[in-house]
């Protein structure tokens, strides 16, 4: 009898920890590679996210529009060295100071994912990311009285990147599991997209959009990470370290990233769980440059990228039955708010990010 109870409890525990059928079995939806699968299992997922940026900071401190207009324009030196650096710049004489101020940026992302476990030890994961970026900017006269001239908007959208990773199950017990993550991510979107801008000379011209507005940087990145999930009574405590390092790049690329996630989950019942996540992201500045990206705006300077951000995320996972099949499906949401940001140089501030995701095991 005791043996039977023991067996039963082990069985119950192991069902709970692999827990594909309870809401708490998966981490917060903003995480990638938080769980692995059992041999033969398939899962497809769709995530949609929306994030905004507003206001500006200089080396992590708030800065007013007037102060932005007093910042030197790094493209000025370059353009005065050669008389007419680029054809596209000929209609845009470079002012000495920054003259275009980003007011708002919106980034939307659609991520399609698939997971498949050829064995209990390995889960393969593929992802495709589509992104859409929009920026609203104000243009001021480049010299003299610095009058406000007007606003304009630039945008880009493209299939941005694809990735293929493997998750290696290192250890799995009743109360804890560990897995290693290794993968490659290729940025495939356009990296020289052009857009119409309002210049400080009050003319409209087409230029190569600044780095942050490009759908991709064409780099190949190595993804590595470790995830640990521990079960404490009916709660889950998760940890993940993640590195994204570029190993092959073109003339410029976004900086390498280090990410740390710490999350806590509890459940109301088998079908609804809640999560609280701390997310730390440290990104390097842009490496290299594109000689055609030259404009009196902060985003045209490769040094005005990267920095440290600490976010807090509040999320919910739900078990649902939208699609037929032998497994139920999952719906999850997460709201992510920056609580501390120290971005390099002159950059816009992150605002809240919202992620909604749908997952289906097959
Ligand atoms: Cu999965």
Describe the structure in your own words.
This protein is mainly beta and 362 residues long. A twelve-stranded antiparallel barrel has the order 1-3-4-5-6-9-10-12-13-15-16-17. A two-stranded antiparallel sheet has the order 7-8. It starts with a helix and ends with a strand. Helices cover 8% and strands 56% of the residues. The chain has one domain (39-361): Lipocalin, CATH 2.40.128.130. It binds copper (II) ion (CU). Copper (II) ion binds next to loops. The site of copper (II) ion has 4 residues, from loops.
Task: Note the overall shape.
Answer: elongated
The CATH architecture term is Beta Barrel
Which class best fits the helix and strand makeup?
A: mainly beta
Q: β content, as a range?
A: over 45%
| Spatial order of strands in the largest sheet | 1-3-4-5-6-9-10-12-13-15-16-17
How would you state the average pLDDT, rounded?
90
Task: Tell me the major beta sheet.
Answer: 12 strands, antiparallel, barrel
* Unreliable residue runs: 7-19, 81-91
Question: From the alpha-carbon coordinates, what is the Rg to the nearest angstrom?
Answer: 24 Å
Query: Can you write the helix and strand succession as a string?
Result: HEEHHEEEEEEEEEEEEEEE
Number of domains: 1
Report the CATH C-level class: Mainly Beta
Count of distinct strands = 17
> What is the name of the CATH topology?
Lipocalin
Distance between the termini: 36 Å
The helix fraction, in percent, is under 10%
Total of helices: 3
Bound molecules: copper (II) ion
